[in-house]
Every structure is written in C-alpha cells, then in structure tokens.
C-alpha cells in the first residue's frame, strides 16, 4: 500500500484534531537564534497535545541551550558618553 502524505499549513494553535486529524510526525520550523522565540514551546505543546498520534515523532526533538553571565564596565568615552 502506498504511503500517504498530508501537508497542513497555518497557525497550529488554530487547528483542531476534529478538523484535521492526528499525525505521526509533527514538524516545526519555529527556531530563532535563542531557540525559544516565536512561541516555540506553546506551539509544540498544542501540536503534541491536540494533533499528534500516540508515539508521534516531533522535529526538532530537542534543544540544548548554553548560557553565560558576564559583567563588563566600559569607560566614559570622550567625556560625554556614559555606557554604564
């Protein structure tokens, strides 16, 4: 039996499983430089809860965040700019 592919586009938060069904794969392209922008967590939460079949594969399936804290004091520049 041939495989079937159904592509559903739009704001995932407006889709309901009663209207579009449940899927074995959830793909999201919502990745910005921080990894958490563009409401990624709420979008994937809705998709996994309301649109994914049990055991569905989510792409991307992980996120590793690396952060660092730092403090830098810049000197006054030309006597009139204060960067503090």
Describe this structure in words.
- There is one protein chain.
- The protein is α+β, with helices and mostly antiparallel strands.
- The chain is built from two helices and two strands.
- The protein has a two-stranded parallel ribbon with strand order 1-2.
- The longest helix is centred in the middle third of the chain and has 11 residues, at 40-50.
Cα gyration radius (Å): 21 Å
The unreliable regions are none
Main sheet: strands, sense, barrel: 2 strands, parallel
Beta strand %: 15-25%
Categorize the overall geometry: elongated
The total count of helices amounts to 2
The largest sheet has its strands arranged as 1-2
Element order, helices and strands? HEHE
Give the helix proportion (percent range): 10-25%
Average of per-residue pLDDT values? 82
Computed structural class: alpha+beta
Distance between the termini: 67 Å
Number of strands: 2
Itemize the secondary structure elements and their pairings.
Layout lengths: L16 H4 L2 E5 L12 H11 L1 E8 L25
Parallel strand pairs: 1-2
